[in-house]
Amino acid sequence: MPIKGIQQFMLGSVMNNEAQTRDTLRTIRQAGYEGIELCSFMTHPTGLMVRLLTRAAGMPTGSGGKLDWPALVKESGLRVISLHTDLGSVERDPAAVAAECQIYGTRYAVITGMYRFDYGSEAAVRELAQRLNRAGAVLAEQGVQLLYHNHNCELLRVSETRRAYDILLEETDPAAVNFEFDSYWFAEGGANPLDWMCRLGPRMKLWHINDRGTRQTGPAMTPILKTDSMELGTGNLPLASWLAQADRNGVEAVILESHRNWVEKSPIKSAQLSAKWLNEHL
After folding, report:
1. What are the pLDDT digits (tens) for 21-48?
2. Selection from 252, 249, 263 nearest residue 35 by Cα
3. What is the DSSP secondary structure assignment for residue 113, as one 8-state letter?
4. pTM score, two decimals?
5. Residue 70, C-beta contacts closer than 8 angstroms, at least 6 positions apart
6. What pLDDT, on a 0 to 100 scale, did the predictor assign at position 260?
7. CA distance 160 to 9
8. Residue 68 binned pLDDT confidence (cut-offs 50, 70, 90)
9. Nearest to 92 by CA among 58, 128, 131, 124
10. Phi, psi at residue 78, to the nearest 5°?
11. Which of 86, 132, 160, 203 has the greatest number of CB atoms lying within 10 Å of its CB?
């Protein structure tokens, strides 16, 4: 079975200094998580623009960029599942990215959807696929596997029959590029995550899990309610059936990444509640 993990992005607001980070990691481990997915822009000092963009997305990076993350993670007993980075960093200095992965004992470097990128342009997405192939091939020579993490922008159509994600899946080389699939964003975008998980098959190496629903109770002003991220098992997504497919695909880790809308506005309490579902099903 895959291991249970959590994305560091979710915990930025409770990892601002060494003592707080140590307590957070200890609490996460006690809840049942076995691994953590690190973000290079949270384990290193970052610029103002990155901090503003992540805050706007509901996941502030916090002030932990100067901490000794290798030591903190080792002390926690958590395994580093992967390291999130960006394509530009891999293209500029793949050796540095590979070396950082090796420091943490992970063989996965993950990049996410590109900012200010035209996912509705077939030519642009095809060129992105080739960039991924080139970057992944260089990393593979150093023992690191490149994974691509989706949001919902990859569902944009580039033609009547193809979406951006079709191109990324069909025109990347499995020897160089594979995938960390985020089912929440495809569900949010109106796609059927199970269909895509079946298509990905063994190329789906990691799975970002989240639930979706609403906390609203009582009479509503409108029959159309706003939905958002929810703790696992408290929303309406068919997570158990997706977990079965993820297991068939051979995913190595199921990684919680919820954002905003945390119960009691606490990422720690939210993670603990989601851990109950993970501990029951994994």
Report:
1. 999 999 999 999 999 999 998 898 766 6
2. 252
3. P
4. 0.95
5. 103, 104
6. 82
7. 35
8. very high
9. 131
10. -85, 145
11. 132
